[in-house]
Amino acid sequence: MTDSERISTMLTSSGGGHRLLTRRQFLATSGVLALSGCLGGENNESTNAAVDDAVANAPDPDDPTSSTYARAGAADRPTVTYYGNWKCPYCADFSTDFLGNIVTDYVEPGDISLQFRALAYIDGEPFLASDAPRAAQGGLGVWNVAPETYWRYHEYVFANQPPEG
Description:
By secondary structure, this protein is mainly α.
């Protein structure tokens, strides 16, 4: 039975060993299904969009190994944590359209430190794409191996995300 069939059965069955979803479960399931319908697709064409230099060249922390998650700017500054999913088109829009301004206006002058935390759902039912957990692990791998290249990688991945559809 596919996930869609299982969810459909749970939503419509009241007997036969199946239980009705609570209001909270129904709303959460409906939201996930609606969002996944908007985001689906397996188109692997690349847009080869340009990488935002402001973000790609964001200042590295003094000691990159002191942070588990990717960080730009001085560790002693107030930290703004930016959550995103490598496969989310809205996260890609934010990264390519606004993140450069945040880095230029706040991180480079030393007003804040910026930290990125990838949201990847690893319970067997990924929120946005089946490879989102691997994408999150890949990003952390880049941070752990070559933190000085992380932000260029970050911008490249978001700028070249496959189109929706």
